[in-house]
Amino acid sequence: MFKNNCAVCHGAKAQSTPNWRTKLADGSYPPPPLNGTAHAWHHPMKALEYTVKNGGKAFGGKMPGFGNILSQQQTKEAIAYFQHFWNDDIYNDWAKRSGLK
């Protein structure tokens, strides 16, 4: 799911784009890395699912929503794909924040 829907912007290994913290000329932000080197792991699963479904415009980005494209299961598969790049410490911190542990 990730490779077919998200990698074009977030990179095949969820590594993002260079200078993802710097606003673009239009005031939006480029896609952040999802591989554990940015802030995605600070968000609980519901927030990650919300962003995939509704897009990132509310957060200053340009990401479109995939709610009409991906099922809930496919959304979870895309999230699981980028989470597999997270090291154990990051995943465990995320799981605690999300109430999974």
Protein architecture, described:
The chain is mainly alpha-helical. It has a single domain, classed as Cytochrome Bc1 Complex, Chain D, domain 2 (Orthogonal Bundle). It has 5 helices and no strands. The chain has helices at residues 2-5, 7-10, 45-54, 72-83, 88-97. The longest helix is centred in the C-terminal third of the chain and has 12 residues, at 72-83. It is globular. The model has no long low-confidence stretch (mean pLDDT 92).
Class per helix and strand makeup: mainly alpha
Strand content: under 5%
Low-pLDDT parts are: none
Return the CATH topology. Cytochrome Bc1 Complex, Chain D, domain 2
Helix content bin? 25-40%
Integer count of domains: 1
Main CATH class:
Mainly Alpha
Count of extended strands:
0
Ends: how far apart?
26 Å
Overall, the morphology is globular
- What is the gyration radius calculated from CA atoms? 13 Å
Order of helices and strands: HHHHH
- Note the total helix count: 5
CATH superfamily: Cytochrome c-like domain
What CATH architecture would you give?
Orthogonal Bundle
Mean pLDDT: 92
Largest beta-sheet details: none
Give the quaternary arrangement of the chains: single chain
Features:
Cytochrome Bc1 Complex, Chain D, domain 2
Summarize the structure.
By secondary structure, the protein is mainly alpha-helical. It has helices spanning 2-5, 7-10, 45-54, 72-83, 88-97. The chain is globular, with a radius of gyration of 13 Å.
What layout of secondary structure does this protein have?
Layout: H1 2-5, H2 7-10, H3 45-54, H4 72-83, H5 88-97
